Amino acid sequence: MSSAVLRPCARCVLSSMRRAWRPRKYCVSHTWVVQAAGAVSRMAAPVQLIGEGDYVVLKREDVFKAVQVQRRKKVIFEKQWIYLDNAIGKNYGTMFEITGGGNLQMKSNIVASAEPKEAGADNRNIVDDGKSQKLTREDIEALKEKGIKGQEIVQQLIENSTTFRDKTEFAQEKYIKKKKKKYEANITILKPSTRILAVMYYAREPGKICQLRYDTLAQMLTLGNIHAGSKVLVMETCAGLVLGSVMERMGGYGSVIQMYSGGGPVRAATDCFGFPKSFYETLYEFPLNKLEALISGTGSYSSRVIPAEEEPEKMDEESSRSDNEKQKATQDLVGDCLAESTESMETSLAESEEGVKRCEEVSENHKGGQNVDKKQVAMEKKQKQDERRKREAEAAKLLQDRNADGLIVASRFHPTPLLLTLLEFVAPSRPFVVYCQYKEPLLECYTKLRERGGVINLKLSETWLRNYQVLPDRSHPKLVMSSGGGYILHGITVTRDTTKTNTSCSERTEEPAPKKQKVAEDKS
Amino acid sequence: MSSAVLRPCARCVLSSMRRAWRPRKYCVSHTWVVQAAGAVSRMAAPVQLIGEGDYVVLKREDVFKAVQVQRRKKVIFEKQWIYLDNAIGKNYGTMFEITGGGNLQMKSNIVASAEPKEAGADNRNIVDDGKSQKLTREDIEALKEKGIKGQEIVQQLIENSTTFRDKTEFAQEKYIKKKKKKYEANITILKPSTRILAVMYYAREPGKICQLRYDTLAQMLTLGNIHAGSKVLVMETCAGLVLGSVMERMGGYGSVIQMYSGGGPVRAATDCFGFPKSFYETLYEFPLNKLEALISGTGSYSSRVIPAEEEPEKMDEESSRSDNEKQKATQDLVGDCLAESTESMETSLAESEEGVKRCEEVSENHKGGQNVDKKQVAMEKKQKQDERRKREAEAAKLLQDRNADGLIVASRFHPTPLLLTLLEFVAPSRPFVVYCQYKEPLLECYTKLRERGGVINLKLSETWLRNYQVLPDRSHPKLVMSSGGGYILHGITVTRDTTKTNTSCSERTEEPAPKKQKVAEDKS
Amino acid sequence: MSFAEYRELIQDGDTAIVFLGHDSMFPVTIQQGGQTQTKYGVLRHSTDLIGKRYGSKVTCSKGGWVYILYPTPELWTMNLPHRTQILYSTDISMITMMLELKPGSVVCESGTGSGSLSHAIIRTIAPTGHLYTVEFHQQRAEKAMEEFRQHNVDHLVTVKNQDVCKNGFGVSHVADAVFLDIPSPWEAIGHAKDALKIEGGRVCSFSPCIEQVQRTCLALEEHGFTEISTLEILLRIYDVRTVSLQIPDFGKPVEEKESFESSDASKQVSASQQGSALFKSGVSPRESVGHTGYLTFATKSLF
Amino acid sequence: MSFAEYRELIQDGDTAIVFLGHDSMFPVTIQQGGQTQTKYGVLRHSTDLIGKRYGSKVTCSKGGWVYILYPTPELWTMNLPHRTQILYSTDISMITMMLELKPGSVVCESGTGSGSLSHAIIRTIAPTGHLYTVEFHQQRAEKAMEEFRQHNVDHLVTVKNQDVCKNGFGVSHVADAVFLDIPSPWEAIGHAKDALKIEGGRVCSFSPCIEQVQRTCLALEEHGFTEISTLEILLRIYDVRTVSLQIPDFGKPVEEKESFESSDASKQVSASQQGSALFKSGVSPRESVGHTGYLTFATKSLF
């Protein structure tokens, strides 16, 4: 009977209620408050309601799905077609039931949980002959067609089970849960957040996010000291989830530079966060394959500062080329999306009895509003090209300052070359974090970073996550656990010696010499 | 308040009590019952008492130490010198107190646990100024000199603590535990077992047993299907602990062939089990560096059957040489032992607040009774040489049958060459298990074994062990856990194809081809 | 064939394991004249199996082949018919060691369940030990006895159909070890104590829920057990894989043209084959068993 | 210097971290004219530190050198003076994400303890959020406020010295998230609910013992919280080592003499150097933190 969080974007100004408690200073003097002032104004409304065009997350039991709210648009969720029209104007966190025709109907109150009453002490007398349920499949179908709600069907099933009362409490509960899942369909609509999207992606499409488990992402954001006002480099191939989580933590203050490979940056998951437009003004992107030129100061990036106006011809060509590539990639994406949309689309997070199924593309969200005039398209395209060229030049400039406050890497590329290259752009005394699905590349990366120098406090780690069932007299760790959440290597940058100083203290090798082989094995 | 198990060797014949319950068949027809009959007779006594010369384990709280019971011999345990004389004739599992002069005195009953009575709700008012204890260090020393027992000293400390009653229950318990550890000294004497010795070695001398954690050893014995009546190959450099655990599981039935490197097999931990002599009659050893000759059928092992009498001259030479080596190794061992004996000698298993300290050599046990006549020594040496030569020939014969029922490897050597060589001596449809402290060599071993063929169901695994504190209202996993218990690779032997058959079913590669790189990373 | 000792050749009446491939196998009872269907075709017992050596590769009628394996308790655990939730080898290993089982041990167990642990206990305590196993579900008790006979270990085990919490194990002061896997183990601690030898022994209780553990620990303490300790053991299996990670293209100036091409999505496949790093990795499967149960051990002393 | 935003240069009054080497560091307050002793000699603040860039290598009086680091909440957690048991970054990470903290969030916390979590929360909710932290121990509350001032984040936090179970947080319907690390969290669930915004929010309770979790979950359910879920997170650190394993000598006939020598104990060292395999390994330290606490999360909805 889970419902969910409802709240306006928390970045609203502090209420007078709080101010009354104790006089407090304001941080208005900080430059970045001013810088992001535009973003703040949007948050004035006291309680935000579900609106058309909003990016939301549907929740049923432990299953999440990110969608955009659009009128008269069918959405498939947990094998059911639904329309979200009736959710518009309601509070976030509202729970709905699906009625005939796939419409949502607000649930007036939490359903009384059908807790088992009379439980047998054990199940010694139960013989499973497949005949304990008196209702036939046809009976149930008939009930459904009559429009009987799921909750009532489950109750009917319990009453018509000859063995239900003889089952142990544990077995009864399992039975109810199974039936509820099948016949009841309560959907809660939530505001997206890193928590929800990270959990959703790990459950539904782990392959798209390099198997990055949500607790591992949590470590990265904290160890990377991601916070408002900093300048962060992000290199990820996790559908934009890592990027989105960084942007959420920065709240529109500061700047994010996303490095990308291929036609353009991937931000399908980023869009699911439903950030205000202003957030994207602090987001830049830069292609990996121009980094060498940037570092060596050749080609377009020969001078440290390139005003957008003075950009040479060549740059222009490149831009339009990469734009073509991006177009193509987008087409592929959409095609892929359509091809997959007929397949089975849901995955259950905790209750994976049926195993992990293929998930649909979340990036469906991108398809809205494509029927626009062709001329307008051409114009918009030109505008976008110009904008992109300008932004890339700005990104180049931000990089060339070589004073980023952090670096977050989570990609399907080998981490070593990425780290060795991208660390050049990070200021000293700043944290960096690299995620890899495998441990072995990070062992190599660790060694190479030690050789490079300019980094201290290197740690290779993994987190173990255990979820618990806490119920009266039935508490235990969940029976299924994720055994692989990936590995993290993190450290802190420092100024780099060009001349090797004479030994002494500070950063010792940290790797002890291989232990002396004991001479005789006989010393037991 | 821990006491311990007391029981006669469980391998005694079944009591008539049990026979009365229900008539049962005996397995007297099995050849190995007859073979080990000598061993059984020793177990006739109903309850075995602690005897002079017995190998026993001392236990104090969670700390174990294996020693041999000898009259008027000082033993150091948990920083205290004690004499075991008074334990002789007592039951195993008896708890003793240490009295003045290091003598043991039987505890009449379990000490009433000084459970906290009046606990403060929280510790908000406690200011730690180092002045809360009214007893001075001098006061405590005076109490000790008066011969006041530990339990009473702890009680005095509690009564003279001004803050004790204000502490939370949790803090009170911690306080009592700490003080008890310091001032109370109850020692239980236990019969050795794999459980106790494996836990002891992992806590005290993990380096000597390649960090093999007890739960990992438990897996090896079960996955290796070690049981009475089989013929098992053991290659270990774990001080003889793995060998001992295999021998315990075989109960003197069947045969064990220990492969060794260097001067001779290491069995310090094996001796701590206190096995009856008869067990050693089923134990053989064979040097690794003669295996090549055995396999290729060159040198001494040119014929499949070598009766001990017909052993060629060369074999003799080798034997005596390896004997010299063994002598030397033993000297090293003793020297090492003495050198270390002045160091700090105890390690606590669960409460490692003080970290892991160096442990003394358990093999002290070997030193007893060295003052014998020199001539006798020479004679005995000759006898031993002859015996060893004979046994090695017998071991060679057992190996040459190439029908071992199992293979257990746990060593500091690279597992791949060991496995590839030793599997030659194992019959088909038999399990093998190899332990390694590191994961990487087992990845290689896995690959090489696949290439070799003749093995199926290969699994690389690790176990996680969590110990729990279960106390009313204070249950949780222990705060310190072992994070490395080592890795196991195990599988089953099958007959080996010399000719590659044409594909089809059965053992597929088991390793899927590296996943196709997705063409575009853009499909998020 | 016996689960308590090895034999070399396949014989009429044996229980054997047909191994089809990676984690795919099933048990079969060998019968003169019998035959077994596999996805690779028929296995004819008389001609294909009886008299062959265990571990042999046997060709089925359709030309595919399988291995015939000797049944160890561990293979049985992987293949037995489930009548209840069963204990797996990871927990069984720990139970066996921590109960200090060895040849000659006398053990009491309840419930018998599907006999997974029973087979492992019998293997370890043979040839001179004995297992008393109590199961309250009659059909299960009968089925277990039938399996023990079939597996030639019935002389090492006695099965009794009763409620251990009410009636105990039906034996007194004979056991070296007692194992409990029942919903209310705390109700059987007194009976466990009674079943153990006068001079002492070890007890183990397996429970999925922490509340069961809490009550059991209290009962153990009340009955004077010592060395009470609770632990949990989890298996983590690694798949051995060869993995390839792509090397990113930073647009090295030397081969500027080249690198431009490789940034074209359509050619990226070949580029990745050139610029990638291969390595062996022990990969965790995405999901694994997160919990089986807590194991609580304790010692009964003489006193 | 502020824990909520980066600066480039070391200034008078800053709290900085002196990094001596592998896991060895300590915090220092920079003072014009001050000096700090290290094992490598004295650091003179005015001449050696002030005006230098954070991350610089600084040479001490004895010629050894150290790095001066900018204080992040994570470095502070590793170096802060312990007045209580503290929360570490592994749990803090999970708390921050699962409470959905971000710039602008309003958070209530109890107890403040040593301020480890408080610093991390403040960093995340700055510049527009606020932390209300309640500590029942007066000295601790005062010390925490002093640290917040010193770290230039006092405008983002309010410390109150009271008993949260009796008096709550002193604010109503303002918080997006509530965090509890107290002995009896179930007694504060009502206050937590009251502190959360009308439209809802998230709550987290940290408890070492499962019984505390059981009671807290019951209280959460009674107060109408949903999405109640309990988890535990453990950090596993790997040391990167180069390991050498010896290749066994089977007495290869080609070099019979040679192999014999290598079996001689006195020469084994050199032999092992020849016949050994080197590899990189991520080695688990022998012991690690086995448990910190259970984290229980729940959602308060509008209804």
List keywords for this structure.
heterotetramer, A: about 525 residues, alpha/beta, Rossmann fold, eight-stranded mixed β-sheet, five-stranded antiparallel β-sheet, 16 helices, disordered N terminus, disordered C terminus, C: about 300 residues, four-stranded antiparallel β-sheet, 10 helices, about 25% helix, flat, TRM6 (chains A, B), tRNA processing (chains A, B), nucleus (chains A, B), tRNA (adenine(58)-N(1))-methyltransferase non-catalytic subunit TRM6 (chains A, B), transferase (chains C, D)
Largest sheet of chain C: 8 strands, mixed
Fraction of residues of chain A in helices? 25-40%
Major β-sheet strand ordering of chain C: 9-8-7-10-11-15-12-13
Tell me the Rg of chain A in angstroms: 28 Å
Give the tally of β-strands of chain A.
Answer: 16
Strand percentage of chain C lies at: 25-35%
Q: Count of helices of chain C?
A: 10
* Helix count, DSSP H or I runs of 4 or more residues of chain A: 16
Structural class of chain C: alpha/beta
Which segments of chain C are poorly predicted (pLDDT under 50) over 5 or more consecutive residues?
A: 255-273
Family (chains C, D): Belongs to the class I-like SAM-binding methyltransferase superfamily. TRM61 family.
Binding site for S-adenosyl-L-methionine (chains C, D): 114-117, 135, 181
Organism (chains C, D): Eleutherodactylus coqui (Puerto Rican coqui)
Subcellular location (chains C, D): Nucleus
